[in-house]
């Protein structure tokens, strides 16, 4: 099954020191640097990628969609936050979606809808590794597992956690 990455653009920019430095020079420079990095990542991993940016304060009255080297870029319309667009996309994609955002509300929402959520900080780490030629699977054991103690001989991770690990290996 193909995976569709849905990324909260400004959230990811603000989790990366490199991208944040670009954004301080100009908002458009931060966006361009993120898209350049994601383009390099897309060449390696071949996942469908959608990046959503907020346009709710100064955006157009209609949502603005554009393609940048195979990446779908969406600016939310004026009066609508990127969070709402991300939720709508996650509802459409359901199990195919991996949503990248550090916003706890979005993460909880998409996980309840059957999609997988990953923090922007963790995705940025994996993005940097992939673009630089590293491999994130060697760090997979270091990830803290949120689970309750289970009774009986089968100490198996929760279904949600197993699905997360399976998708994270593909990133």
Write a structural description:
The protein is globular. It has a six-stranded mixed beta sheet, with helices on both faces. It starts with a strand and ends with a helix. It has helices spanning 9-13, 17-25, 27-45, 82-93, 104-112, 120-132, 159-170, and strands at 4-8, 48-53, 64-68, 71-75, 97-100, 116-118. It has one domain (4-170). Helices cover 46% and strands 16% of the residues. A hairpin with a 2-residue loop joins strand 3 (64-68) and strand 4. It is α/β, with parallel strands linked by helices and 171 residues long. The chain is built from seven helices and six strands; from the N terminus they run βαααβββαβαβαα.
Sheet with most strands: strand arrangement: 3-4-2-1-5-6
Output mean pLDDT: 84
Summing up helix and strand content along with how strands pair, one would put the structural category as alpha/beta
The CA-CA distance between the termini, in Å, is: 14 Å
Q: Compute the number of helices.
A: 7
Task: Summarize the main sheet.
Answer: 6 strands, mixed
Domain count:
1
Order of helices and strands: EHHHEEEHEHEHH
* Shape designation: globular
Stretches where pLDDT is under 50 for at least 5 consecutive residues are none
Radius of gyration: 16 Å
Strand content: 15-25%
Brief write-up:
With 171 residues, the protein is of the alpha/beta class. 46% of the residues lie in helices and 16% in strands.
Q: Topology, pairings included?
A:
Blueprint: E1 4-8, H1 9-13, H2 17-25, H3 27-45, E2 48-53, E3 64-68, E4 71-75, H4 82-93, E5 97-100, H5 104-112, E6 116-118, H6 120-132, H7 159-170
Parallel strand pairs: 1-2, 1-5, 2-4, 5-6
Antiparallel strand pairs: 3-4
Helix pairs in contact: 2-3
Biased composition (Basic residues): 146-171
Protein name: NYN domain-containing protein
Region (Disordered): 135-171
């Amino acid at each position: 099954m193909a995976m569709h990455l849905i990324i909260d653009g400004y959230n990811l920019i603000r989790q990366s020191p490199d991208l944040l430095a670009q954004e301080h020079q100009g908002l458009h420079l931060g966006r361009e640097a993120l898209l350049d990095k994601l383009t390099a990542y897309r060449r390696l991993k071949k996942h469908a990628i959608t990046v959503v940016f907020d346009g709710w304060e100064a955006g157009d009255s209609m949502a603005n969609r554009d393609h940048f080297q195979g990446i779908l870029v969406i600016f939310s319309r004026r009066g609508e936050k990127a969070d709402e667009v991300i939720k709508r996309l996650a509802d459409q994609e359901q199990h195919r979606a991996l949503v990248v955002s550090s916003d706890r509300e979005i993460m909880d929402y998409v996980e309840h809808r059957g999609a997988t959520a990953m923090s922007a900080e963790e995705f940025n780490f994996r993005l940097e590794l992939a673009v630089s030629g590293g491999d994130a699977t060697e760090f997979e054991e270091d990830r803290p597992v949120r689970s309750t103690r289970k009774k009986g001989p089968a100490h198996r991770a929760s279904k949600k956690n197993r699905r997360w690990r399976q998708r994270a290996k593909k990133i």
